[in-house]
Amino acid sequence: MTVFVFKTWVPKELPLPVLNRMGKTFWSVAGEAGINSTIIRVPVTFPAEDFPNGKLLSGLGVPDVRQTNGTFTVWETKRHNTTDTEMGGKLIQVQVVGNRVDTYLLGPKNFTVEGKPDVKLPFSVEIDAANKAATIHVGEQTQTVAEGEFSDFFTFDFKLNPIIGLQGIAKFALISTDPFKLYLAPVNFSPKKQPPTVRISTPKDFAAALAEDHGLYKTLGWQEETWALNENQIDETLFLADLKENFQQFEDILMDQIGQDDWRLFVWVTEATDRLQHMFWRYLDPKHPMYDEAQAEKFRGAFGELYHAVDTLIGKVMEQYVNDDTHLIILSDHGFQSFRKAVNINTWLVENGYMTLKGQEDVRDRNLDDLFDQGEFWPNVDWSRTKAYHLGLGQMYLNVFDREPNGIVPKEEYEALQEELRQKLMAFTDPEDGTPVFLGVYRRQDLYHGPAYDFAPDLFLGFNQGYRISWQSALGSVPKGLIVDNDRKWSGDHCSVDTSLTRGIFFSNLPINKDEPEIYDIAPTVLKTLGVAIPDDYDGKPLY
After folding, report:
1. How far is CA 523 from CA 59, 182, 200, 331, in A?
2. Distance, CA of 139 to CA of 136 (rounded, Å)
3. What b/e string do you get for 116-137 counting C-beta neighbours within 10 Å, with b at 16 or more?
4. Do 201 and 51 touch, CB atoms closer than 8 A?
5. E strands within 47-200?
6. Under a CB-based contact definition with an 8 Å cutoff, are residues 276 and 300 in contact?
7. How confident is the model at residue 477 (pLDDT cuts 50, 70, 90)?
8. What is the tens place of the pLDDT at every residue in 377-388?
9. Partner of 46 for a Cys bridge, out of 61, 145, 165, 324, CB 3.0 to 4.6 A?
């Protein structure tokens, strides 16, 4: 037998995800001591690493097939001025011919071709306006979907070239038949067929085994449809239905896996409560700019329903699996506050002389795609006259000489400028009513230590109640206005809010030795409970 492989089909390099987390996880330490573990959807575990005596399904950090945090797509007859939304959605204008739409969906970037163009997969839709439904055809797969509902999973086979392909999964939602509008959730890696360079579980076949037992499920780290709701592409009813279905599926996975007699350490994470609070907090806060009494009456009960479901699940676990020899910990790493006003902190830097623009104003609003662009991120910033900038969620950096690409701040002036900024920010008040914008502004040397210290922001901003960094400031932009009302559905938050206002919760079935446990106490507590030596580089202390 002779096999021919054309060199042009085999790329010189393959995209390889890298886990930047430092240190050794407590389940790896436990595994090396012979302790069996099951770890389900813990953040920052992608790509999944092998560890002794354990299995793991990755959580927050798993990308979609486009290597983003979650790119949704909308097809509609409406004309848009852009093809990209702020948080990474794709908008495609289509024509309805008769009762049919012929279009395409966007798959991964084709890394085997110069320029890495999008792989496009054709599909068609037959519209039944009389019955407010549509039939979607993707290859040999066909599903009929009613208005206001999600389909089941479709499987998409993307061909990058004749020998390299990738399989993804996602659900459509029919928003409207007239005018036509169709939504597609971010395309996830299929748990049944992961690419060779992608590991969403360890062992690698663990993800596929879960899919065999429980059906296809979302592998994306950020599973809930928050971005589409925030940008008004889906409504609250669709968002909530998807959230509940996803929570139920992972509850089933939890009960299945915890019922297996192959572990001494079990960790399971749900983010459903987090996502609900991000999007529905406006229904709890009459002072929020997006508060609507009629809508609040309709949707505020979702909080009680979801927490009741979580409480019921905990009750089942305790009843069936917790006894005098079992140690149970239930925790959240943060709480929530209302996000009423957005603060444009780069604009503050410009107005106070710490950042200088080349023109009178920034070029345009930024979107998530800009974060992944290899070009210059701030094309309108004059770095030769800029001392500080903000990027991310409350992270301010000084433009330090010999550290930043175009740094100008001498190292001997670093701490003086750092303290000057800290004091001025602490004195920054809302022009509307004089409320301090910040509850705390923290120097990195007062917060951080260890091998990742050099990656820390120079100042960490702790916003006061009701305030948060604006979306555009998070993306590095310089929009107009210092403080603006938050007119987004993303109405509750913890990111960039002072941590004293967003404390998490901690429950245990054993008494603890500390009034205020901290997140880094968990790892040494678990290891001590299991009788495993605690590594010297762990910061926390056992709580028992």
Report:
1. 18, 45, 23, 13
2. 10
3. eeebebebebebeeeeebbbbe
4. no
5. 54-58, 73-76, 90-93, 100-109, 118-128, 133-138, 141-146, 149-150, 154-161, 164-170, 172-177, 180-184, 188-189
6. no
7. confident
8. 677 899 999 999
9. 61
pLDDT of res. 10: 63
- Contact (Cβ atoms closer than 8 angstroms) between residue 159 and residue 110: no
- Domain ranges in the chain are 339-492
Average pLDDT of the chain is 94
Name the strand (E) or helix (H) holding 298: helix 293-299
* Helix residue spans in 365-512 (DSSP H): 368-371, 414-426, 444-447, 471-474
What pLDDT is recorded for position 338? 99
Report the alpha-carbon angle 87-91-93, nearest 5. 170
Q: Which tens digit of pLDDT belongs to each residue from 231-283? A: 999 999 999 999 999 999 999 999 999 999 899 999 999 999 999 999 999 99
How many whole angstroms separate alpha carbon 82 and alpha carbon 80?
5
Q: Which amino acid is it at 261?
A: D
Q: Which pLDDT belongs to residue 469?
A: 97
CA 529 to CA 508: how far, in whole Å?
13
The average pLDDT across 450-459 equals 95
Cα-Cα-Cα-Cα dihedral sign, residues 240, 241, 245, 251: positive
Crossing angle of helices 236-258 and 301-321, rounded to 10°? 0
Q: Is the CB of residue 481 less than 8 Å from the CB of residue 350?
A: no
The pair of three-digit structure tokens given for residue 321, joined into one six-digit string: 């699996």
Sign (positive or negative) of CA dihedral 219, 223, 225, 227? negative
d(CA 188, CA 529): 37
Distance CA 321, CA 452 (A): 38
Distance CA 200, CA 188 (A): 11
Phi, psi (rounded to 5 degrees) for 114 = -60, 135
Contact (Cβ atoms closer than 8 angstroms) between residue 191 and residue 184: no
Write down the number of H helices and E strands in the chain.
13, 26
Please write the tens of the pLDDT for every residue from 151-181: 999 999 999 888 888 999 999 999 999 999 9
CA distance 61 to 41: 10
Instruction: Dig out the tokens for 372 from the structure.
Output: 């992944």
Q: Can you tell me the distance from the alpha carbon of 509 to that of 328, in angstroms, rounded to the nearest whole number?
A: 6
CB atoms within 10 A of CB 335: 15
What's the pLDDT tens digit per position in 311-354? 999 999 999 999 999 999 999 999 999 999 999 999 999 999 99
Cα–Cα distance, 110 to 114 (Å, whole number): 8
**Confidence at residue 17, expressed as pLDDT on a 0 to 100 scale:** 85
C-beta separation of 507 from 409 below 8 A:
no
Instruction: Quote the CA–CA distance of 45 and 221 in Å, as a whole number.
Output: 10
Nearest CA among 19, 13, 104 for reference residue 56: 19
**Whole-model pTM?**
0.94
Measured over the CA atoms of residue 484, residue 490, residue 492 and residue 495, the dihedral's sign is negative
